[in-house]
Amino acid sequence: MLDRKLLEILxxxxxxxxxxxxxxxxxxxxxRCGVYYEVKEGIPVLLPDSGKPLVKESP
Length: 59
Prior knowledge:
The protein is mostly beta strands. Helix content is 10%, strand content 29%.
């Protein structure tokens, strides 16, 4: 779980947009860029090259 105040100041390293925290997957999502960033041991990995493409789940 990431601290709420930390989540308020974090931004996408590429587009500087908002990041959404998905607690069950422990990832930060940038919907604008269509990528997610992993959170490892409570530390967000926000290097521009570390973003992974979002995969849309089929119904």
